[in-house]
Design a protein that fits this description.
CATH architecture: 6 Propeller
Structural class: mainly beta
Strand content: 35-45%
Order of helices and strands: EEEEEEHEEEEEEEEEEEEEEEEEEE
Number of domains: 1
Oligomer: single chain
Radius of gyration: 19 Å
CATH superfamily: TolB, C-terminal domain
Largest sheet: 5 strands, antiparallel
Number of helices: 1
Length: about 375
């Protein structure tokens, strides 16, 4: 079976590759930080990335308004953005200077229902030459990853080529469809999946549900994966919603809890993150504890991004942007909340370069209270 793909070269902050084809050395655990290369301070943190104890986040401007159920976001090399509509199954280009929206086309085969539909987006690591856009979506039978040629020279509405399915068979459900995809610093595709409401799938390493998958751009299990011949990178997840790498190529992921704890995790290849046996921190040494945890009414996390020495995490039910300053793969200080209740549900956050983030609201997804102009993309300045 061809393997799964993952979202967004836009989440990358480190551009180098691991030399042996395996996952980046820095994808370490909180309990035992992995070996890394490059200059670092005695604390193990890369020189110059020490986050302040207290940060800030301020909306600089509204980039675009009137988006319908936006979910995935992918920055283009020219500075514009591609955004997916979960319920419409379309991809739209947003001019970040003027806010002008141009629909590129509808992705065939998308079957939106509940939390499923057209979800994560990512650009090929060779986008400059191949113009390939990757997408994760719910079909009538499963969740899958496809890639499509984006031809800017064709008329509006016809710029997306036919989807080429590179990975399929991920369990689907009304809930917990995962959906975040991202290309890592190793140029492999990472895919966050959910257990589709069937909790037993998370601990089953033969299942694709409740996992982070690591694939080649063609959808095969990536070289160096922890379980031979398998796309599984980590397991024991409930519903992975965010993927991001820090400046030392360590992978972090956000995850929905059930009724008690939402999580931010530092991902180590082959580790078990506990669901459904554990939610949040656990006394069982066989499970990898989260970097930070929140009550579900404070977070219900979705996308994450790395900037200014911290992970920034969008909250849906929590309606706020969380900052988690990092000390290696640990939280350097207590998480801080910003924009609480100001823009409603927050779905996706992506680095925009330097001290800026792109932040996408999610008030038209059936669970929010839309205001005039929703949904929108915001530019946020952080420190």
């Amino acid at each position: 079976m061809p393997a799964v793909l993952a979202t967004a070269a836009l989440l990358l902050t480190a551009g180098c590759s691991s030399g042996d084809g395996g996952p980046p050395d820095g994808a370490g655990s909180a309990a035992s930080p992995s070996r890394t290369t490059g200059q670092s301070s005695p604390s193990g943190r890369a020189t110059g990335e020490t986050p302040p104890a207290k940060g800030s986040a301020k909306v600089v401007r509204t980039v675009a308004t009137g988006l319908d159920s936006p979910w995935g976001l992918a920055p283009l090399p020219d500075g514009d953005l591609l955004v997916s509509s979960r319920d419409e199954g379309t991809i739209t280009q947003v001019d970040t200077g003027t806010g002008r929206k141009t629909e590129l086309g509808e992705v065939p085969g998308v079957s939106p229902a509940g939390e499923g539909g057209l979800l994560g987006l990512a650009l090929s690591p060779d986008y400059a030459s191949d113009h390939m856009v990757y997408a994760y979506f719910t079909s009538a039978s499963d969740n899958r990853v496809v890639r499509m040629l984006y031809d800017e020279d064709k008329p509006s509405g016809e710029q997306l080529g036919a989807p080429d399915t590179i990975f399929k068979g991920i369990p689907k459900g009304v809930i917990h469809n995962g959906g975040r995809i991202a290309f890592g610093p190793d140029r492999m595709l990472y895919v966050g999946t959910g257990e589709s409401g069937d909790t037993g799938l998370s601990q089953d390493r033969e299942s694709l549900g409740g996992k982070i998958l690591r694939l080649t751009p063609e959808g095969e299990p990536a070289p160096g994966n922890p379980f031979a011949g398998s796309p599984v990178h980590s397991y024991g997840h409930r519903n992975v919603q965010g993927l991001a790498w820090d400046s030392r190529q360590r992978l972090f992921a956000s995850e929905f809890g059930q009724e008690t704890w939402d999580e931010l995790n530092a991902i180590k290849p082959g580790d078990n993150y506990g669901w459904p046996e554990a939610e949040g921190r656990s006394d069982d040494s066989g499970f990898h504890d989260p970097v930070a945890q929140w009550s579900t009414d404070e977070a219900s996390p979705s996308g994450i991004a790395y900037a200014k020495g911290s992970i920034w995490m969008a909250g849906l039910r929590g309606q706020r942007l969380w900052r988690i300053p990092l000390e290696g793969t640990r939280a350097a200080a207590a998480p801080q909340a910003f924009l609480e209740g100001e823009y409603g549900r927050l779905r996706t956050v992506v680095p925009a370069g330097g001290d800026r983030l792109w932040l996408v609201t999610s008030n038209t997804d059936g669970r929010g209270a839309p205001k005039d102009g929703d949904d929108r993309i915001l530019e946020v300045r952080v420190r």
